[in-house]
Amino acid sequence: MSSRPVAIVMGSQTDWDTMRHAVDVLAELEVGTDVRIVSAHRTPQRLYDFAHGAVDAGFSVIIAGAGGAAHLPGMIASMTRLPVLGVPVQSAALSGMDSLLSIVQMPAGIPVGTLAIGKAGATNAGLMAAAILANQDAALAARLDGWRAIRTAAVTERPEGAEG
Ligand SMILES: Nc1c(C(=O)O)ncn1[C@@H]1O[C@H](COP(=O)(O)O)[C@@H](O)[C@H]1O
User: Can you tell me which residues bind substrate (predicted)?
Assistant: First the structure.
């Protein structure tokens, strides 16, 4: 496996505050990432080169985050067989509903695994990428199990401040 098996792309610098959560969780799991800005609208040639070169570049999973008219994940998926996880970035005008609907409703044959809007979606995209890779990597599977066990143990049975 490549030392950077997950490509994380986003439509704009302004998406970084959201997409860094995918990078962070993958770093915790010791999964290497390659992070770039790629836009179907603003840098179409970069998008084409990235998507067509993704397999040869050694990527196993692509996470693509975009907001508004979020065509990026679907356009990437149209040009590679690699699994593409789409993160709808929260937009100012429509709170991310535009991003979500732009990403989720793909035509049959060109799948994008669509996550939740915003930070939770970016974190879960990272975890899902790790879960895909863990099928072929026992050490990563153990790290992912450990990561989940720590979060489970941190949830107290009773809410703090409740009586009885
Ligand atoms: N949705 C897309 C694409 C695309 O889909 O290719 N490229 C940029 N964008 C989005 O435009 C929003 C506003 O971008 P700016 O803040 O740079 O104006 C960002 O959320 C970005 O993902």
Answer: 12, 15, 42
